[in-house]
UniProtKB/TrEMBL annotation:
Catalytically driven reaction(s): GTP + H2O = GDP + phosphate + H(+)
Domain CobW C-terminal: 263-357
Gene Ontology terms: cellular component: cytoplasm
SMART domains assigned: CobW_C (SM00833)
Pfam families for the chain: cobW, CobW_C
Name of the featured protein: Cobalamin synthesis protein/P47K family protein
Role played: Zinc chaperone that directly transfers zinc cofactor to target proteins, thereby activating them. Zinc is transferred from the CXCC motif in the GTPase domain to the zinc binding site in target proteins in a process requiring GTP hydrolysis.
UniProt keyword Nucleotide-binding, yes or no: yes
Length: 358
């Protein structure tokens, strides 16, 4: 099925109390989002969030309680998504046009994304249009320090929303530091500040998480490798591994690297075309060796024998089918690979590239 026929799904994540429900409440009041089905997952036996979300028609809120979506009740989510097509139909007409899934504050988004990518029935009916992560500006720095889940929520986001900025009199150095840290963790994500959940629906509707071959977002913008290059160490030229091993930045007080975040963003540019066999072999090895720590991998690859770029995109050990585009968007034919990793250093990635890809 094409993008036009599959239903968009938005994943709303963010640490406990960071403003997910407040945002959802504002969004569902917007006419543009009227035909939205909401799935709320709460951890614990008594769930409250679904009571807090007001919606035009209450029967378009589904609550998945007593377990966390990313672990124990992923099957429930899959079943719910399979069933809602007929459950929410009136006289054969589906009564919703999109789905927003609000996760628990402690959920890791990647397993939920995998469910959407790997379940054949779901993948034929739904497409992930965006991952939105809320961060409470007052507590986000400490939360990122203490909770790897929070870092992972940032790493896979397309849109990062900094909430509760109204509680600070004016933009503070802390807010600037937080923004710099988020850019370090996920250079390609958009970052916005919001107050009391106010966000124009278009901010969601314009997201385009995957499938650049059908996307309205230009390829270069989708990859956004320029953002990675700005914040990562420096582009790698094969054969210069010695220089890669040396620390290349001096950490200052304001440097977001000083937090020792486990998550890092890396970008590699490779001038030469790559054979299909090597690309496949390298991807297999990469996934076998470090799949679970590869939070996000995206690439535009110059493959020998193809007139256009081959686009790769994976979340942890699961890759979307590669897309073979017919033409390059501009004269630049270089392969660009961007990674967001957990506890994987740049040198390690560089070595796999040099050894198995080149
Ligand atoms: N001042 C202020 N308060 C906010 C803002 N956003 C959310 N809050 C408040 O923060 C508290 C937590 O917000 P929620 O929207 O419930 O957060 P959540 O992420 O859904 O929380 P959990 O379901 O516990 O994970 C509530 O009391 C909200 O009213 C904001 O922008 N400004």
């Amino acid at each position: 099925m094409t993008n036009n026929t599959r239903l968009p799904v938005f994943l709303l994540t963010g640490f406990l109390g960071s403003g997910k429900t407040t945002l959802l409440n504002q969004l569902v009041k917007q006419p543009e989002l009227a035909r939205t089905l909401i799935i709320i997952n709460e951890f614990g036996t008594v769930s409250l969030d679904h009571l807090l979300v007001s919606h035009a028609s209450d029967d378009t809120i589904i609550e998945l309680a007593s377990g966390c979506l990313c672990c124990s009740i992923r099957g429930d989510l899959a079943k719910t998504l399979r069933d809602i097509h007929w459950r929410f139909s009136r006289q054969g007409e589906r009564s919703f046009d999109r789905v927003i899934i609000e996760t628990t504050g402690l959920a890791e988004p990647a397993p939920i994304m995998h469910t959407l990518m790997t379940d054949i029935t779901l993948a034929s009916k739904y497409r992930l249009q965006g991952v939105i992560t809320t961060l409470d500006t007052l507590h986000a720095a400490a939360t990122l320090d203490r909770h790897p889940e929070s870092q992972k929520q940032v790493a896979v986001a397309d849109l990062l929303l900094l909430t509760k900025t109204d509680l600070q009199a004016e933009p503070t150095p802390k807010l600037a530091q937080l923004t710099a840290r988020l850019k370090q963790l996920n250079p390609a994500a958009q970052i916005r500040t919001i107050q009391q959940g106010n966000l124009e629906p278009q901010a969601l509707l314009s997201l385009d998480h995957i499938e650049p071959q059908q996307s309205t977002i230009p390829l270069r913008q989708w990859l956004n490798s320029a953002a990675f290059s700005l914040t990562s160490l420096s582009d790698t030229v094969p054969g210069q591994l010695a220089s890669l091993s040396a620390p290349s930045t001096t950490l200052s007080q304001n440097d977001p690297n000083r937090h020792n975040d486990h998550i890092k963003a890396h970008c590699f540019t490779l001038p030469q075309a790559i054979t299909p066999g090597r690309l496949e072999g390298w991807l297999n090895i990469l996934m076998q060796l470090m799949g679970s720590n590869m939070l996000r991998v995206k690439g535009i690859v110059n493959v020998v024998g193809h007139s256009g770029p081959v686009v790769i995109h994976g979340v942890q050990h699961i890759f979307h089918p590669a897309a073979f585009l017919t033409a390059w968007p501009d004269a630049d034919r270089q392969t660009r690979l961007v990674f967001i990793t957990y506890d994987i250093e740049r040198e390690t990635l560089a070595r796999t590239i040099e050894t198995f890809l080149l």
